[in-house]
Design a protein that fits this description.
By secondary structure, the protein is of the alpha+beta class. It has helices at residues 12-22, 39-58, 72-75, 79-85, 111-121, 166-186, 233-238, 262-271, 297-316, 331-340, 351-356, 380-405, 413-419, 435-445, and strands at residues 26-28, 35-37, 62-63, 69-71, 91-95, 98-106, 130-139, 153-163, 192-196, 208-215, 221-231, 241-243, 249-251, 253-260, 288-292, 321-323, 345-349, 358-363, 373-376, 407-409, 426-430, 448-453, 461-462, 469-470, 473-477. Helix content is 35%, strand content 27%. A hairpin with a 6-residue loop joins strand 23 (461-462) and strand 24 (469-470). Helix 2 (39-58) packs across helix 6. The relative contact order is 0.11.
Length: 480
């Protein structure tokens, strides 16, 4: 276990903060509840952003940018929206030394300002669908904050689309939920459960909200992406209409969807261990680190020359590689430094390795001597790329096994009350409850209905709280 990192079994919350500090992902800002994302943490976000942005463009979306400041009157036009966000709004009342004629909300989300522009840009059915996305920062005045998971200011993307009819808009809603699921599984190596949110958990102003729910290493859930079908709620508030093919005025149907820097928190908590980060290769800023080992000047020259050649070959092959040639510190210090930062594969090269024409390799997902193996110099690049793909798949398998082994099926509410404190995880239950049952559950167990999975087991059973017969199952868990 890394010296300055608390055991996750002992104190998971402290472990999380220790990993962020020791891996140099983020630091506290002078403003309460805000964070400064350090270069290594931002590099992880940049890799996420690049992958997601590619996926968005492949599905026909274009990037745009909308103002940070939104007239307060815009926020109040959609009643559910203003009610949902009012406690979190940051309001600007003065600018340039003068009181503003109308207060401005600092962007909590952009449905209102984007609808204002949609009403100008959309005139005919030929303008539809309009598929936009923006990468931006948002501000929500949170009372309890935690780096990456919940901060007053955070980074995200928000997609906003307008469609001619409900069918097309709902198809878009589910398509983008699928994009998020694919990213989580394929790139972040995090298995997720896509599902429908309950009325009490849905986005303020949406008709339906869908989400992907992931399990962290303490058994808690983390909502890792949302996709909303907004219906015509915002269109009616902003008079966003179009002329259909029969020359009749219609309201557009809309969607919005987003993920944020909380995905960095998800990576930490879904994969990390007692020694720090474990990053999936597809998102790791450094996929492979080379540590040259030598004692004499003669050895140094030979080892460094070969290490440089290996680095150049890997770079040419598209591997994100770094050679740690820092002076004045031991190889063990370097090993620990990159282990804490979760680099997927470490290559060690010393005089004996040169003689035997191989490198010693240590995969981060299998620490210790048992994980070590040698890679021959001949064919090294192909073997490294093959190993990185293997690590990616192993990490997904490991996270899936953990989730499945911490998923429980129960029939009665008392089982949740009795088991959850000692056995945190996902509880799959028959569900036909409402707001009253959800409020009671949260008060008594601190758990919530995370989602109603899209993949249902079939059949029917009695709701574990109301006793009513139902054909729907839900996932219940404590969540961040």
């Amino acid at each position: 276990m890394a010296k300055n990192i608390t055991s996750p079994e002992k104190d998971f919350s402290r472990w999380y903060l220790d990993v962020i500090r020791e891996a140099e992902l983020a630091d506290s800002a002078p403003v309460r509840g805000c964070m400064i994302i350090r270069p290594y943490g931002y590099a992880i976000w940049e890799n996420m952003k690049a992958s997601l942005d590619r996926r968005f463009k492949e599905t026909g979306h274009s990037n745009a940018y909308f103002p940070l400041f939104i007239p307060q009157s815009f926020i109040t036009r959609e009643s559910e929206h203003v009610e949902g966000f009012a406690p979190e709004l940051a309001i600007v009342t003065h600018g340039g030394g003068k009181e503003l004629e109308e207060p401005l909300a600092v962007r909590p989300t952009s449905e209102t300002i984007i609808n204002h522009m949609f009403s100008k840009w959309i005139n005919s059915y030929r303008d539809l669908p309009m598929l936009l996305n923006q990468w931006a920062n948002v501000v929500r005045w949170e009372k309890r904050t935690r780096p990456f998971l919940r901060t007053t200011e955070f980074l995200w993307q928000e997609g906003h689309t307008a469609h001619a009819d409900e069918e097309d808009a709902r198809r878009e809603t589910m398509k983008m939920l699928g994009v998020y699921e694919s990213f989580a599984v394929d790139d972040a190596a995090i298995p997720v459960i896509p599902g429908l949110k309950t009325e009490g958990e849905k986005f303020a102003g949406a008709v339906d909200t869908y989400a992907i729910e992931a399990m962290m290493r303490n058994g808690w859930a983390l909502q890792s992406g949302t996709s909303h079908y907004l219906g015509t709620n915002f269109a009616r508030a902003f008079d966003t209409k179009f002329l259909d093919s029969e020359n009749v005025q219609q309201y557009v149907h809309q969607t919005s969807w987003g993920v944020s820097t909380r995905l960095v928190g998800a990576l930490i908590m879904a994969h990390g261990d007692k020694n720090g980060l474990r990053l999936p290769p597809r998102l790791a800023p450094v996929q492979t680190v080379i540590v040259p080992i030598f004692r004499s000047d003669e050895d140094r020259q030979r080892v460094m020359e070969k290490a440089s050649n290996i680095r150049d070959s890997l770079e040419k092959a598209g591997v994100r590689v770094k050679m740690d040639d820092s002076q004045g510190v031991s190889p063990g210090f370097k090993f620990n430094h990159w282990e804490v930062r979760g680099v997927p594969l470490r290559l060690e090269l010393g005089p004996r390795d040169l003689e035997e024409e191989h490198v010693m390799a240590s995969p981060r997902n299998k620490p210790g001597r048992e994980g070590k193996f040698t890679i021959p110099m001949n064919g090294l690049v192909d073997e490294v790329k093959k190993k990185l793909e293997e690590i990616q798949n192993q990490m997904l398998g490991d996270a899936t096994d953990y989730r499945d082994s911490h998923t429980y099926e129960i029939q009665e509410y008392r089982q949740l009350v009795e088991q959850l404190p000692e056995k945190p995880g996902f509880y799959r239950v028959w569900w036909d409850g409402g707001a009253e049952e959800e409020a009671r559950m949260q008060e008594e167990t601190k758990a919530t209905v995370r989602c109603i999975p899209l993949a249902q087991s079939g059949g029917s059973g009695k709701c574990f709280m109301t006793g009513r017969e139902t054909d729907r199952q839900a996932i219940v868990a404590r969540a961040y």
